[in-house]
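Page 47, continued from p. 46.
Same chain as before, 232 aa.
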Amino acid sequence: MKKGNLEYVTNGLIKENPVLRLVLGTCPTLAVTTAAINGIGMGISATVVLICSNLVISLLRNVIPDKVRIPAFITIIAGFVSVVQMLVKAFLPSIDKALGIYLPLIVVNCIILARAEMFASKNPVLPSVLDGLGMGLGFTATLTLMGAIREILGAGTLFSLPVTANFISPMIIFLLPPGGFFVFGMLVAASNALAKRSGKKPVEHLGCESCPSRAACAEYSQDGVKEENGDE
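Result:
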C-alpha cells in the first residue's frame, strides 16, 4: 500500500479517531461497551457499513444532486445497515440481542454520515474506501478497549472468561452509565495527552518581517507606510 493510501487508514486510528479525537458516535459507544464482545460486534458492523456506503457514495458523487445529497446518503446507508442487521440476526443472534436498537441506529450514526458528507462525496473510490476502513477500525478499537476495561472492572471477566476473580471484586458501577462516562473521559484525556505529546509545536509568529510573502502583502505595505510616516 502506498504511503498516501496508508495515511487514509491510520488517520482514523490515531490522528482523527472518530470517538476519542472527533468525539462522534458517543451514544452507541457508551451504551454497548459493557462487554468487549459487544464493542467488536458494533465496531465491525459499523465498519462494514462505512466501507460499503463510502464506496457507493464516491461512485455516485457526480450523479447525486446537491440539494438531496443528505437524503440520498441516508438511503444508501440504510440499505447497507439493513443487510448487516439481517446477517447479524441470522448468524450472531446473541450479538444482535446485546446490541439491540443500536444496531439499526447505525443508519443515523454521525460518524458514517460525516464521512459520507465530508470525504466520500468529494474523493475518488479508493481513498473513500480506505477512509471508511480507517474510521471503522478506529471505532472498533476504541469500543473494544472501552468494553474490555468496563467488563474487567465491572464483571471481573474478559470475553466472558474470569480474569480478576482472585485479585479484586467486580465493581458493578463500571457496567452502569456513570462508569461508562468515567472510562470514556479517561480514554479521551489519554488520547489528547498522547496527541499533544507527539504533535509538533506550533510555529511562533514573529511578525511581518518573518513572512516570505511580505512584499506582496497590503497589510505589510500599510505598516511600512505608517512606520515611514512615523519616522518622518
